[in-house]
Amino acid sequence: MNQATGAPGTARPGGRTARVREAVLRAAGDALADKGIGGIDLAEVARRADVGKTTVYRRWGTVHGLVADMLAEMAESSQPRADTGTLDGDLAALADLILDTLTDARQGPLFKALIAAAASDPEAAAALHRFYRVRIDEWSPCVTTAAARGDVPAATDPAEVIRALSAPLYYRFLVSGDPLDPDTAKRAAAATAAAARSGAYVV
């Protein structure tokens, strides 16, 4: 059966509560991308979502609480990792995914707003950390599989490999302002794969 019966007051998958959450999180993402974390409030999100203000205030309480739920939803719906059969191919696919996200007209500003929110609120920071743990856990098996094939040393730390690939892309995105383009992503993937093979991430 597709629908599960829950306790009174809980949402069924696809029910009204789920639709309200989807509409509010979409509206919040649009508002954050447009105005940043300092430019929105719950009343505006409710207006954009065509949802009653009391519903939004009762469920999320604050903008940072809404940010935390948005990050939870993003982790729940994140794309599965690639499985190209090679470490180089898998890391190149991840670099391309990060590049596409950070340079997207909506997703790029949204991530900047989410990171800004995390810098000023512990709840948002914890949610952001959980989001990236989910992403690292999702992609770590490409390194574990590479180690099983003998492509990298057996004691290679998969999480460190994923972090090493991501770091230069996020540095350009958030700090230096240097161009983010396919060549940048390709170099980051190739450098990380070479470092992994050399034993740089052995623990």
From TrEMBL:
Pfam family, one: TetR_N
Ranges where the HTH tetR-type domain occurs: 18-78
Residue ranges of DNA binding: 41-60
Entry keyword set: DNA-binding, Transcription, Transcription regulation
Coiled coil: none
Entry keyword Oxidoreductase: no
Gene Ontology MF: a single term: DNA-binding transcription factor activity
InterPro entries the UniProt entry points to: Homeodomain-like_sf, HTH-type_TetR-like_transc_reg, HTH_TetR, Tet_transcr_reg_TetR-rel_C_sf, TetR_C
Protein name: TetR family transcriptional regulator
SUPFAM superfamilies xref list: Homeodomain-like, Tetracyclin repressor-like, C-terminal domain
Origin organism lineage: Bacteria, Bacillati, Actinomycetota, Actinomycetes, Glycomycetales
